[in-house]
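Hi U.,

Before I forget, here's the chain from the pilot set. I'm dumping it here mostly so it's searchable later in email.
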Amino acid sequence: MTNYKIKHILGQTVFHIVVILLGFLMLYPILWMVSNSFKDNAEIFNSSSLIPETFRFDNYVRGWKFNNSVTFSTFFYNSFYYTILSTIGSVLASSLVAYGFARVPFRGRSFWYGCMFMTMMIPYQVVMVPQFIIFHKLGWINSFKPLIIPQFAGLPFFIFLMVQFIRQIPYELDDSAKIDGCNRFMIYSRILFPLIKPAVITSTIFSFYWRWDDFLGPLLFLNKPRLFTVSLALRMFSDPMTSTDWSAIFAMGTLTLLPVLIIFLIFQKYIVQGLVTTGLKG
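Structure:
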């Protein structure tokens, strides 16, 4: 075996060891949470092992029941309702706005596109107070309207992502569709929208993640426990006045990971494809 092959094998071995260690460090918090979901409260703080001494499946039953009036099924329903409607609205609206920026010539298009792009740099904390005042005057507090309806105006990141995809599509397709009698909306819905599938799916996945994990938005606009999402429900487990049921918190936290994990495993190739091809010109 030559020195080159030996160095190559050693280099690959070291590389894989480092990647495995880094992967374990990133996954350790999740593994720790899943492990603690099967332990009792005493063992959580007295043992650092990832393998429970006794698997306590009743933690999931106790956590799902939550209290006598509301169960975790209500919180999961609220989260899915909020997440799905917000995702549909943000993705469809963003694709339509992106088509306008990429294909429809109008005065000041570059200026408005730049303004849209700059809104990506504004932290949500800057606009949440004006938004709360507006929605309070509209009487939308303690409903899902403040969380869902604004999503139907599109999101700047998704618009930017889809604009890059549409710009890669040749204009000749638009001209051919016009010859066949298609108007602008027909060109958008029948020609361009199916061709930007990677960007649409990528935006859908990101929107699902962001809305499912959203804590600040529901915290601002929802005060009734029956309207709480899973993120707010997990916070309700912690009671500084009494003992906190940490086992139930970790059990429900583990369950809340399942939807996003399933979505990622099914559509992960579209995430890579959507991000890799963004910004490339055909």
